[in-house]
Queue: 2 jobs
Job 1
Amino acid sequence: MFRRRRQSIQYKTPQQVVKMRAAGLVVAEVHRAMREAAKPGVSTAELDRIAEDVIRSAGAIPSFKGYDLGFGPYPASICSSVNEQVVHAIPSETAVLAEGDLISIDVGAVLDGWHGDAAITIEIGRVAPEATALREACEASMWAGIRAAATAKRLGGISNAIERAVGAAGEYGIVTGFGGHGIGTEMHQDPHILNYGPVNEGPRLRTGMALAIEPMITLGAPDTAELDDGWTIVTEDGSIAAHTEHTIALCEDGVWVLTAPDGGVEQLGELAASAAHHD
Ligand code: MG
């Protein structure tokens, strides 16, 4: 829906973006550790312990732990959403990964007051071909959104690019209840970023914006439901879901993918900021 509320966007200086890069690299390191640890027989609680250890060893703080939407604090450092769980699933000793699972791990870290936030979807052992295709479609749509951030005039350009990329990849549902967001000295800032919509809407894209781009897509219908724990979001039809996210900064000369180890250079080429090339 059209938002009449005036957006309060925090524009970062180049020096502040460098601080966000440091936080982003902590998140990237957690992702590396998650890819290594996520195997059949491992519980999501164990993944959470590893993630928290990586974050605290880097001198950072897990952004998610204690995060409160008004119903009590989130108890863990990651969200670990398996199969039909879309986002915000709480790690648990009883959630043990099995061959064929698709797990989306979302993690946030705050370092020196600046946040990084990113998610990956990981295949556990051999998964069904449609699970791989879903994961790849989600990643491709995120990168389409990130490329659009380098070229579009308005925020809607990002949303529209994600929607078109998902549509080009196959018959997938785009989850509408959740989206990307501004990020900086808080994990969630303006603007909210829809994963669908017209090109010419929303605030102007400007140097100094830092955005978390995060499509969530499903193999079936896009409708979701919340479990009784007050956090876990699942698909209503039980179909599997994928969730991929990076934190990016709009720099004078391109986009810096703050939570990607290479700053986004491989995927973005000349659209990547020079800072990313010099990482
Ligand atoms: Mg996010």
Job 2
Amino acid sequence: MTEAILLVGGKGTRLRPLTVNTPKPMVPAAGVPFLTHQLARARAAGVDHVVMATSYLAEVFEPYFGDGSHLGLHLEYVTEREPLGTGGAIRNVADRLHSAPDEPVLIFNGDILSGVDIRSLVDEHTGSGADVTLHLTRVTDPRAFGLVPTDADGRVTAFLEKPQTPEEIVTDQINAGAYVFNRSVIDTIPLGRPVSVERETFPGLLDAGAHLHGLVDSTYWLDLGTPQAFVRGSADLVLGRAPSPAVPGRCGERLILETAEVAGDAKLTGGTVAGARSAIGAGARIEGSTLLDGVRIAPGAQIRDSLVGAGATIGAHTVLDGAVVGDGAVIGEGNELRSGIRVWCDAQIPAGAVRFSSDQ
Ligand code: GDD
Ligand code: MG
């Protein structure tokens, strides 16, 4: 096993309003573009050839990752003219694969942070003789995912993408977005039209009697679909809860990138990242947050579980809790921004303009 396909296209994959031009896979998590973690984990598991299947803004991936040699990978890019869906995207890159028909090819959704043991997934695939093996994880609310019930031997019995009715919620096992396909199965996906691997390919394979195998692995797993999840994922990478060989530095309470300036009595905890050229003032308290490059945090600010976009400024004694602040935004002093608030890129909030607590 040496090859993988990384799916990084489709709709809704930009982390608005965090940045205007940066697609989500390139937003830094623990100091490096998120995709770096997936690529480095694949490399560590023995993958040496990765095809990135993308349908938009491909031009941002290639200048950064190039031919992949700095990661020890041979990296190729294929851009769809129109989004082809997950299955169409996989089929569209089949001619870049070198694997023989019976050899396994790894496929990853590009928005997942996972600690799954990739080698075990491949070993399970080979050992069970399956056509396709899916990494499954358990979640309390499976409605936003693909439900994958299995029998006692781990054989997949159905694939129900985004169940609509309570009756359809037959399991808490979901598709975790990492698969091993036999190369020959990829070649059976129709070419040149949109195909959903979840809604068409998997149900079709099951109807045709193919052997789909599920491996439930309950190690770290997070879908980075929301900015809040992204902040959590970045902090977990820094804390070492989400394992990645690409974290630039030792895991611990904080990751302070080399050119950041942090005042002596500022306190950074809970997996906080201080981006390059950021400046953090005296007495600031920052917990579990991601501060991107060039952020300025004034003295006494208190920031928790928040994402602060590149070049944004946070005024003195301002409180952020579960907030997303877009690139270049300026939040004046003495504001209080809480759960779920999203401040658009370059927006300006005057001093003392927003509070959630009573006047004092
Ligand atoms: N190249 C390409 N072209 N990639 C695509 C396209 C496309 O047309 N459509 C989606 N993708 C990529 C996305 O960038 C993402 O990395 C992955 O395929 C999955 O698509 P999402 O749009 O993020 O799907 P989802 O999150 O709603 O559901 C998927 O992931 C869940 C786990 O997070 C499904 O695979 C579910 O079954 C699964 O449970
Ligand atoms: Mg997703």
